[in-house]
């Protein structure tokens, strides 16, 4: 078991690292979004007009899931 002092220090460490990870995600997210957008454009160029609605539906579902998970 941790002492109260250890618990307080552990919580402080975890909070500091959580904030650093959040900042890193915010820094890197735009690059991920650029890659994701480029991939979607490439896929759209590959698909036939008949296939595009299905892809758009799937993309909307994926986007909704991403938003749910986003902190």
Main β-sheet, in a few words?
none
SS element count, helices: 2
Uncertain stretches: none
Distance between the termini: 30 Å
**Secondary structure tally: strands:** 0
Approximate strand percentage: under 5%
Mean pLDDT equals: 95
Structural class determined from secondary elements:
mainly alpha
- How would you sum up the global shape? elongated
H/E series, N to C?
Answer: HH
Based on CA atoms alone, the radius of gyration comes out at 20 Å
Report the helical percentage. Answer: over 70%
Descriptive overview:
This protein has 71 residues and is mainly alpha-helical. It is 86% helix and 0% strand. The radius of gyration is 20 Å and the shape is elongated. The mean pLDDT is 95.
Write the layout of secondary structure elements.
Elements: H1 4-46, H2 52-69
In short:
The chain has 71 residues and is mainly alpha-helical.
Overview features:
about 70 residues; mainly alpha
């Amino acid at each position: 078991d941790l002492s109260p002092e250890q618990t307080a220090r552990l919580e402080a460490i975890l909070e500091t690292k959580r904030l650093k990870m959040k900042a890193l995600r915010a820094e890197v997210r735009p690059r991920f979004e650029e890659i994701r957008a480029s991939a979607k454009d490439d896929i759209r160029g590959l698909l036939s007009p008949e296939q595009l609605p299905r892809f758009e539906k799937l993309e909307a579902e994926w986007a909704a899931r991403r938003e749910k998970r986003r902190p």
